[in-house]
Specification:
Elements (H helix, E strand, L loop, with lengths): L6 H9 L21 E7 L18 H9 L1 E7 L4 H10 L28 H7 L3 E7 L18 E5 L10 E2 L9 E2 L2 E2 L2 E2 L8 H16 L5 E6 L16 H4 L8 H26 L6 E7 L27 H4 L3 E4 L8 E8 L3 H8 L17 H5 L5 H7 L1 E7 L4 E6 L2 E5 L26 H6 L2 H6 L9 H11 L18 E4 L17 H17 L48
Parallel strand pairs: 1-9, 1-10, 2-12, 3-4, 3-9
Antiparallel strand pairs: 2-11, 4-7, 5-6, 7-8, 10-11, 13-14, 14-15, 15-16
Helix pairs in contact: 5-7
Length: 581
C-alpha cells in the first residue's frame, strides 16, 4: 500500500480512474404492486459448521435451521473471504476486483470507501420505491459522509460504520499501532448515545422489530440486518455475551467456545424475533427472508472467535472452502418447492440481480454491469438448467496481486495459486465436538419444531413439516470429505486444482495429473483474462490526524470534520476512548 496525501488525490485515484455507468432512475419502475418485502440478515464471521442444520450437535440454532427447513438451504453458497470485500460484493453484485476492494478490509483509520461511481443494491431499491433500511454494521468506508449508508441509497441507518465494536460500550480499538479507542454508533449521521450498556445483538434486533412494525405493510421494505455477531470485540475482551445466555452452555468445556455458543444463540433468537415481528405486522405473506454469513469463521489468529468451519480447511481471509463457503438459507411463500436443498452454486454477488428480479425491478436497460447472476427463476420456479450452470458458473474467490493469491471456481473445478500467512491456515483447523453435546439434540426435531420461527412459518406450509423430512435434509446438508488425502498441495510452492463437487474438503490436488492438464491451462488463461479487467486496489493508509483522539474520541468523517479538543461525547464526564499506546 502507499500513503494518502490529500482528499483530491483520493478522489482522483479511487474514483477518477474508472468511468462506470450508474443506474438511470427513469429505467426503474416505482409501482409498489407485487413488490415483496425483503429482509436480509447477515451474520459476521459465523463458521460453516456453527449452524446445526449441517449436523453439529455441540449447540443448536433452531431458528436458523427452521428458516431453511421451511424454505431452502443454500447448499453451495459462496462469499468473499473477509468482511469488506464480501459486503462490497453483496451491495454491488460485482467481484471485488471490479470495485477495487480485492485486497483486505477498510480499517477504521483508512480514508477510502466503496467507489461512489458504483451503483449499490440500496440505491436501486430506493429508486424503485422501497423504504431502504440498514441496521448494524456498514464497513464500506466512512472517512467522508459521501461514503456512509444514508448517502449510498439507505433512507435510514442505525448501527456502526467500521469493522467491529464492543458489544456493550460500542467502542473500537483497531489492532494497529498508534490508533486510539473511538466510539462508533450512529443513527443516520448523528451519534447515538441511548442504551449504552445494552447487548448490541439485542439492540439491533429491537431496531429491526421497530422498523417492521412502523412499516406495517404500508410500503415495500428493504431491511438489511447486518449483525456484529459473532465477530470479536476489542482485544482485551474479545468474546462477549449476556451471562444468562452463557449459563445455558455450561456443558461446553472450552470457555471461549462456551461464550461463542452464547453469541450464536443470541443471533439465532434474533431471527425468531424478526420473523415474529413480520407476522405481527401482517407482512410475512409477501416477504423474502434470507440469512447468511459474510465469510468463513476465524478459528485461530487475528479476531479469532473459535468458530468452526469443519470439515473444510482454512478459515476467514483464506482462499480455501473454509474461508469462502458459508452457511445460508432463504424463506418466502414465493419459493418453489420449499422444504428442500438448493443445489446450484450461488455467490453473494448474486443477491442483487436475484432480489431485483423478485421485486420486479428490471435491470436490463440500466447499463448496470454485474458479475452476479439472477437465480430468482430457479428459486421461485423451474426455469433453470442445472447441468449448464454447473459447467458455466464462475466465481473469482481471490485475485490479489499484493498478497499474490489466486482462487478461481469454474463449475466444479477450483484453481488455487498462492496462499496467506505463509500457509499457517492451510489445514483443517477445527474438529467437530463429540462429547460436549447440547441437551436439546436428544430430540433435534422437537427443538426445531418448537422454535419461534417454525411455529410461525408452518402456517404457510402446504404440508406439515415432519421429522422424516428434517432428518433427511439435515443428512443431505452434511459435508462428506471422501476417502482421505491422496495428493496434497503445498500452495506456497505449487498450483492446486480440485474438483470440489467430489472433493469439497480439498484433499486431492489434481494439478500434476496429465489428464487434467487442459482444465489447468484453461483456468490459468481465465485468471489472466480476469486480471486484465481488475481495477486498481483502493486501499489507502491512514494518518495521525484521522485518529479519534482528534475527533471527540469518535470514529467520524475525519476527511471533512475539523479536529477538536472537545472530548465530551454522549454526556460522559471524560473521553470515551483511550490514548494510543
Amino acid at each position: 500500500m502507499f500513503g494518502f496525501t490529500s482528499k483530491c488525490l483520493l478522489s482522483l485515484i479511487c474514483f477518477g480512474l474508472i468511468n462506470y455507468e450508474l443506474v438511470d432512475a427513469s429505467d426503474i419502475p416505482k409501482n409498489d404492486e407485487n413488490k415483496p418485502h425483503i429482509i436480509f440478515i447477515l451474520a459476521d464471521d459465523l463458521g460453516f459448521d456453527d449452524v446445526s442444520f449441517r449436523g453439529s450437535n455441540e449447540f443448536l440454532t433452531p431458528n436458523i435451521d427452521a428458516l431453511g427447513y421451511h424454505g431452502k438451504i443454500l447448499n453451495r453458497l459462496y462469499s468473499s473471504a473477509i468482511c469488506t470485500p464480501s459486503r462490497g460484493a453483496l451491495m454491488t453484485g460485482r467481484y471485488p476486483i471490479h470495485t477495487g476492494m480485492q485486497h483486505y478490509v477498510i480499517s477504521n483509520e483508512e480514508p477510502w470507501g466503496l467507489p461512489e461511481n458504483v451503483t449499490m443494491l440500496s440505491e436501486i431499491f430506493q429508486k424503485a420505491g422501497y423504504s431502504t433500511n440498514l441496521v448494524g454494521k456498514w464497513h464500506l468506508g466512512f472517512g467522508k459522509r459521501e461514503f456512509t449508508p444514508t448517502h449510498r441509497g439507505f433512507d435510514y441507518h442505525y448501527g456502526f460504520w467500521g469493522g467491529f465494536i464492543d458489544y456493550y460500550q460500542r467502542r473500537n480499538k483497531m489492532p494497529v499501532r498508534n490508533v486510539s479507542m473511538g466510539y462508533d454508533f450512529r443513527r443516520n449521521l448523528e451519534l447515538e448515545c441511548a442504551d449504552i450498556g445494552t447487548y448490541v445483538t439485542d439492540l439491533f434486533t429491537h431496531e429491526a422489530e421497530r422498523i417492521i412494525m412502523a412499516n406495517n405493510n404500508t410500503k415495500p421494505l428493504l431491511l438489511v440486518v447486518s449483525h456484529l455477531a459473532v465477530h470479536t470485540a476489542n482485544d482485551q475482551d474479545p468474546l462477549q455475551a449476556p451471562e444468562e445466555e452463557i449459563a445455558k452452555f455450561q456443558y461446553i468445556k472450552d470457555p471461549k467456545r462456551r461464550i461463542y455458543a452464547a453469541m450464536v444463540s443470541r443471533l439465532d433468537q434474533s431471527i425468531g424475533r424478526i420473523i415474529h415481528a413480520l407476522e405481527k405486522a401482517n407482512m410475512l405473506q409477501n416477504s423474502i427472508v434470507a440469512f447468511q454469513s459474510d465469510n468463513g469463521g476465524p478459528s485461530v489468529g487475528l479476531f479469532s472467535n473459535s468458530a468452526s468451519n469443519f470439515p473444510f480447511k482454512g478459515q476467514k481471509v483464506t482462499q480455501w472452502e473454509g474461508g469462502v463457503r458459508v452457511p445460508g438459507v432463504i424463506w418466502s411463500p414465493l419459493l418453489h418447492k420449499r422444504g428442500s436443498i438448493f443445489q446450484p452454486t450461488m455467490y453473494i454477488g448474486d443477491w442483487l440481480p436475484t432480489l431485483a428480479d423478485a421485486a420486479n425491478i428490471p435491470l436490463s436497460r440500466s447499463g448496470l454491469r454485474l458479475d452476479g447472476i439472477n437465480l430468482w427463476p430457479a428459486l421461485s420456479g423451474d426455469s433453470f438448467n442445472q447441468s449448464k450452470q454447473k459447467l458455466d458458473r464462475e466465481i473469482v474467490h481471490h485475485l490479489d496481486d499484493i498478497w499474490h493469491v489466486v482462487a478461481l471456481l469454474q463449475g466444479d473445478w477450483k484453481y488455487v495459486n498462492g496462499t496467506m500467512a505463509s500457509g499457517r491456515f492451510d489445514t483443517l483447523l477445527t474438529y467437530r465436538e463429540l462429547y460436549d453435546i447440547d441437551p436439546r439434540s436428544s430430540d433435534y426435531f422437537a427443538a426445531v419444531a418448537n422454535s419461534t420461527t417454525s411455529q410461525i412459518l408452518r402456517r404457510y406450509d402446504a404440508s406439515t413439516l415432519e421429522r422424516k423430512l428434517v432428518n433427511k435434509l439435515r443428512y443431505e446438508a452434511a459435508i462428506r470429505c471422501g476417502n482421505g488425502v491422496q495428493r496434497s498441495c503445498n500452495a506456497l510452492l505449487e498450483e492446486c486444482l480440485y474438483n470440489v463437487a467430489v472433493d469439497p474438503c480439498e484433499r486431492n490436488n489434481l494439478a500434476s495429473s496429465p489428464e487434467y492438464g487442459d482444465i489447468l491451462r484453461r483456468m490459468r488463461r481465465r485468471v489472466e483474462q480476469h486480471r486484465h479487467t481488475a481495477w486498481p486496489t483502493n486501499n489507502r493508509r491512514g494518518q495521525s490526524e484521522y485518529d479519534p483522539s482528534y475527533h471527540r474520541c469518535t470514529w467520524t468523517n475525519f476527511l471533512q470534520d475539523t479536529p477538536t479538543d472537545d472530548y465530551l461525547v454522549c454526556g460522559n464526564d471524560g473521553p470515551p476512548c483511550e490514548s494510543a499506546n
